[in-house]
Design brief:
By secondary structure, this protein is of the alpha+beta class. The chain contains 3 helices and 9 strands, in the order E-E-E-E-H-E-E-H-E-E-E-H.
């Protein structure tokens, strides 16, 4: 029987009016530094996934998500046991409404890409199926 921990994190697929999705580059000093990912983060013990999403996006991008603009989209399950000793479980939300302009508060950089062009970036492997689903949806 496996004793690996399951890490619950949330992620946002922020979609602009051109159907591009915001992705963020992990900063130096963090695991997978320099790789691109969807913004989001850990769900704290006292939070719902939606509350964590709003908090994480505020901290990482400096914007306020609008509750009516958050739509559950899919969840990602990826085994990082070999490399990091945990299993990742990540609900992903489509977000089309927010207040403010996203900026790279906690990332090295951010950019907007249509999912069909995300292969041009060094994306985290765990996001591959999510990217394919977004490309088919948008």
């Amino acid at each position: 029987m496996s004793t690996r921990a399951t890490l619950l994190v949330v992620a946002a697929a922020l979609v602009n009016d051109k159907n591009e999705v915001l992705v963020a580059q992990r900063p130096e000093g963090k695991r997978l530094a320099g790789r691109w990912e969807f913004p989001g983060g850990k769900v704290e013990a006292d939070e719902s996934p939606e509350e964590a999403l709003v908090r994480e996006i505020r901290e990482e991008l400096g914007i306020e998500l609008q509750p009516e603009g958050i739509e559950p989209f899919w969840f990602l399950s990826h085994d990082y046991k070999k490399d990091y000793g945990f299993h990742l479980l990540m609900p992903v939300y489509l977000c089309r409404k927010w207040a403010g302009t996203p900026s790279a508060v906690e990332h090295a950089a951010i950019t907007w890409k249509h999912p069909s062009r995300m292969h041009e970036l060094d994306m985290i492997e765990a996001d591959a199926e999510l990217i394919a689903r977004l490309a088919a949806h948008l």
